[in-house]
Amino acid sequence: QVQLVESGGGLVQAGGSLRLSCAASLSVFRIVDMAWFRQAPGNQRELVAGVSSLGTTNYADSVKGRFTISRDNAKKMVYLEMSNLKPEDTALYYCNARNGALAWGQGTQVTVSS
């Protein structure tokens, strides 16, 4: 069974930075387009950033220029570097295949104080 384990969240002040990590126990990881999603209380889950199997990236408008997604196929890891964090970035962050087809992990909480 595929397992996704997110880590790296925490409490930071506005303007701060965090690096999220996602470990994926997926044998075909290298050919799967991956992404980070987030869900704030009362909101639907939204896609934050995606990285294709070839390394092409895309971002939600709200995080462009502040977040960077990357992947390490050898380690089966996906990362999200977040800088200039804003209170509206507060959410539970998850990684998954870009189409959300894998079982969701526990997520990692990011809280940004103003």
Task: Describe what this molecule looks like in 3D.
The mean pLDDT is 96. The radius of gyration is 13 Å and the shape is globular. It starts with a strand and ends with a strand. By secondary structure, it is mainly β. The protein has strands at residues 4-7, 10-13, 18-24, 34-39, 46-51, 57-59, 67-72, 77-82, 91-97, 108-113. The strands form two sheets. A six-stranded mixed β-sheet has the order 2-10-9-4-5-6, with no helix packed on it. Strands 1-3-8-7 form a four-stranded antiparallel β-sheet, with no helix packed on it. It contains no helices and ten strands.
**What is the number of helices?**
0
Distance from N terminus to C terminus (CA atoms, Å) equals 40 Å
How many beta-strand elements?
A: 10
- Measured by DSSP, the beta-strand proportion falls in over 45%
Task: Name its key features.
114 residues, mainly beta, six-stranded mixed sheet, four-stranded antiparallel sheet, 48% strand
What's this model, at a glance?
Helix content is 0%, strand content 48%. By secondary structure, it is mainly beta.
Ordered list of secondary-structure elements with their pairings:
Blueprint: E1 4-7, E2 10-13, E3 18-24, E4 34-39, E5 46-51, E6 57-59, E7 67-72, E8 77-82, E9 91-97, E10 108-113
Parallel strand pairs: 2-10
Antiparallel strand pairs: 1-3, 3-8, 4-5, 4-9, 5-6, 7-8, 9-10
